[in-house]
TrEMBL record:
<feature type="domain" description="Transposase IS4-like">
    <location>
        <begin position="7"/>
        <end position="144"/>
    </location>
</feature>
<protein>
    <recommendedName>
        <fullName>Transposase IS4-like domain-containing protein</fullName>
    </recommendedName>
</protein>
<dbReference type="GO" id="GO:0006313">
    <property type="term" value="P:DNA transposition"/>
</dbReference>
<dbReference type="InterPro" id="IPR002559">
    <property type="entry name" value="Transposase_11"/>
</dbReference>
<dbReference type="Pfam" id="PF01609">
    <property type="entry name" value="DDE_Tnp_1"/>
</dbReference>
<dbReference type="GO" id="GO:0003677">
    <property type="term" value="F:DNA binding"/>
</dbReference>
<dbReference type="GO" id="GO:0004803">
    <property type="term" value="F:transposase activity"/>
</dbReference>
Length: 150
């Protein structure tokens, strides 16, 4: 059985689903949104930021959001400022650089994705519902945090 929440992103050549993560400066997951791969970056970003915004007072100190180039664009920035009252700073790699470049603010999310990939069930997405994938990401993050406390 194939879920209706599976798509294809021609830009990234991804078949399946995309994971949108919102993390704090330590790399701990705030909110997750899993959707079909054919959903655009900005629309998925809006959905995950709506979830973060609903957290209320627990994110009251949040003022700026660092995002990659897929979230660039004046309509998206304006939406975040109007709805969430946050500032979006798009972190782009330098145009003159070739190969891998460490982006100081972007590596926090990439490191979190790396931590999550230590959980075998998250390496491949075989879940029927995107909500199940989201729940497994939250459980994996709980496991990672508990392991650090031990």
């Amino acid at each position: 059985m194939v879920s209706q929440d599976v798509g294809f992103d021609g830009g990234k050549l991804i078949h399946g689903r995309k994971r949108f993560l919102s993390v704090d400066t330590l790399g701990l997951v705030l909110r997750v949104f899993v959707t079909a791969a054919n959903v655009g970056e900005r629309s998925g970003g809006k959905r995950v930021l709506k979830r973060v915004n609903r957290m209320g007072s627990s994110v009251s100190r949040l003022h700026a959001i660092w995002a990659d180039g897929g979230f660039d664009g004046e309509p998206f920035r304006r939406w975040v400022m109007d709805v969430c009252r946050w500032i979006v700073q798009v972190v782009l790699r330098p145009k003159q650089s070739k190969g891998f470049v460490l982006l100081k603010k972007r590596w926090v999310v990439e490191r979190t994705f790396g931590w999550l990939m230590s959980c075998r069930r998250l390496v491949r997405d075989h879940e029927l519902l995107p909500e199940t994938s989201e729940t497994l990401i939250y459980l994996a993050m709980i496991w990672i945090m508990v392991r650090r406390l031990a």
